[in-house]
Predict the 3D structure of the following.
Amino acid sequence: MKKLTYLMVVIAILGLIVSGCIPVVPPAEQDELGTLPNKARVQPTAARVKLESHIFIDRFQVSGDRGPAFSDDFSVYKLFRGGVKWSETPVSYYVDLTGAPGDALSAITASTDEWESYTSADLFEYVADTSIIFNEPEDLEVFYDENTVSWASFENLGLPEDAVAVNVVWFWVMVSPGGVTGRVLDLAQFHIINNSDLAWAVGAVEGDQFDVNNVNTHEFGHSLFLDDLYMPPASELTMLGYTAIEETKKQDLGLGDILGLQALYGE
């Protein structure tokens, strides 16, 4: 009796298929389970990679805002995006000295030398002059072929008038199928831009001048992907997010700067 009932059910289903009431799913339209057509499911798409940028803006601080004195043995540092770093070093960079004071190149290379003196990693390599010039806000959104150091008018670039320098960094990030930005995969590029609307000097700074070595040692810290610090005890560290006229203390790394560097690139 059970066999007869089963046979009757099968015959009924075949009849519905023949009549078109139950569609047959062709093999080409079936998914890996062989049960539902692809269009009946939300199919995941592959994760992708995209290029993103971030601008570190470092502002000047008037003398009355400096607060109490601290030492440079403050051991705190901050890593950008949880600790991303260059997958390969040394990182080559180019310099445009238009608008820079005399002997600025030696001050810039002294900045990179200071970072390299606290790690066995070969971090930076100066290559040559560059023809990349930043003239308008749109230039900050362009991905170029070189890492650069230059001077430009922040008024023309639409940057804050109290900014001494900026560092535009580019990096590759993973994007999920749902469009959510995930982890940083690798670093891609940096552009240190010093504000040519301000007064600059190398060596003996006076009056309203900013020291090239002082400011750019901080900026190369961003190029290594160390983040700014703003707490008062970090006032004597290179990665403090403010600078001041006639300031030179950022030329020499403090303890927190060294620990942050070595956390990324080793001792």
Q: What stands out?
A: The chain has five helices and nine strands. The helical segments are 2-19, 104-116, 154-157, 212-223, 255-265. Confidence is low (pLDDT under 50) at residues 1-14, 16-44. The two ends are 83 Å apart (CA to CA).
